Amino acid sequence: MENLTVNDVYGEALYEAASSLGRTDEFLDAVKVMRDVFREFPDFFLLLRTPSIAPGERKELATKVFGERVSRELLNFVYVLMDKRRVGQFSGIVSAFEKKADAREGVSRGRIESAVALSAEQLERFEKETGKLLQRSVKLAPSVNALLIGGVRIYIDGKFIDASIRRKLDDLKETIMK
Fold this sequence. Notes:
Blueprint: H1 6-21, H2 24-40, H3 42-49, H4 55-66, H5 72-83, H6 90-105, E1 107-114, H7 120-134, E2 137-144, E3 151-156, E4 159-164, H8 165-177
Parallel strand pairs: 1-2
Antiparallel strand pairs: 1-3, 3-4
């Protein structure tokens, strides 16, 4: 039997709710915004998790911050997390939700490193080419690593594609040293 964590259970429940409403992308975008707010304002996040503050006050605070930004369903989901004392696991729940949505929609997520920032067009081209290799839809999160000198490194689905100048120089050095 699959060993499910609390994050998986709540992530699955959130995915099922979003899917049944036909609003998976909307929910995913909104929970990522919420997660970013929690990361940027850790004191606010702590307040929502503090049991010494009355549940009604914590819910009111969440409503004031998120009420205009997220759907009523998502706000109710956060209320359930507060009631069950699971708000502290919000980031993991969002990750589980994202993985579930990706798996159901045939999307693989990975990371691409480049020596300089990629344009939107370049990123899209790398996503398409990587998708052709993996035979599925691919979304890559870009990051800059100046040590690469040029080219890219792609990490996705446990695979590593190194098309960097750094790797080519290292290969050349190894060949010369033999």
